[in-house]
Amino acid sequence: MQNNWPSVLFATAGGVTLSLGTLATQYGWAFVGLSVTEVMASSLKVVIGTTLNYFLDGRINKAEVLFPGVGCFLIAAILGSLVHSSNAADNEEKLAKSLANYSKNTRNSTYEDLTKQLLDEEERPKDLEEAKVDAPEDTQKLEKVEAGTAEFLVDLEEKRSIKVLGSHTLLGLGIVVFAGVFYALFTPAFNLATNDQWHTLPAGVPHLVVYTAFFYFSLACFAASVGLNVWFLYRPMVGVPRSTVAAYLRDGEGRWLALLAGMVCGLGNAFTFMAGQAAGYAAADSVQALPLVSTFWGVVLFGEYRRSSRRTYTLLASMLLTFAVAMAVLMASSNHRRPL
């Protein structure tokens, strides 16, 4: 048996850091939103991870192209934090206006109730069927809450287990920064596992191939994810109610989507590692369409940033444009790996 345990440890460390980053991202979605979370986390991943991989790969990428791209990613991350702050202010304004309107309507309804008591019996519904005529219409109004309104925000808050209304802006940003830092570490760890730049392997022991390293990486990611999620079932954070493994197993709603997401994530990472081995991890790690696609999902499908201020829309567009430019610049920095 070959003594390649140092490389195996690097691969497993990469899997653990990916698990931590992914778990933090899921909390970040609730606090910051899908669009900004992915852009900020990915930008931090590139700023830190690309810099580490550039030096680990023996500077095979074009520095004059690579680091301006990294700078664009850093700007995108800063713009993402500004988008979140601006959107949080918009939401507070919507909720304040809604509360003021509710108070006004409550005062008016008191007068209306007194007036209705003076109606003749003939003007009241004769039976239950007549009284229910308008019920379906009222139910539809309740069900079709328009995205971007204060009612939409309250309805969303009631549906999810993570309660975010009234939370401090820095809490969500802190979770996203935590996710971005751990995301930034998993590709450098995998790079060390496959290329042994620190010369931890004994003489004559071959490096791990991408597929073998990916096996250990995936195994560690799976084990860490199971352990962390079981832990948070019994010791939840940010106000999530406690649960049990038995309750989790009984509730299978949406589980096939979670399994599909895991398989897609694993396939994407496999392609990233193969590309990194061929053209350098610094460039391969930064070429990602995930934040742009997730923004489309967040805005179009989940109603994020609907009815927001012009300032929020301007910051959101600037963030996405900067991210797209950064991705194009880093693609141009790729080069072929030289034999170690």
UniProtKB/TrEMBL annotation:
Keywords of the record: ATP-binding, Membrane, Nucleotide-binding, Transmembrane, Transmembrane helix, Transport
Q: Where are the transmembrane segments?
A: 65-84, 170-193, 213-234, 255-275, 281-302, 314-333
Cellular compartment(s): Membrane
Q: What is its main location?
A: membrane
Domain of life, per lineage: Eukaryota
GO molecular function annotations of the record: allantoin:proton symporter activity; ATP binding; uracil:monoatomic cation symporter activity
Note the InterPro entries from the entry. UPS_plant (IPR030189), Ureide_permease (IPR009834)
Of the GO CC terms on this record, one is: membrane
The membrane topology term of the UniProt record is:
Multi-pass membrane protein
Similarity annotation? Belongs to the plant ureide permease (TC 2.A.7.19) family.
What is this protein's record name? Answer: Ureide permease 5
Which species is this UniProt entry from?
A: Panicum virgatum (Blackwell switchgrass)
Question: What lineage, starting at the top, does this entry show?
Answer: Eukaryota, Viridiplantae, Streptophyta, Embryophyta, Tracheophyta
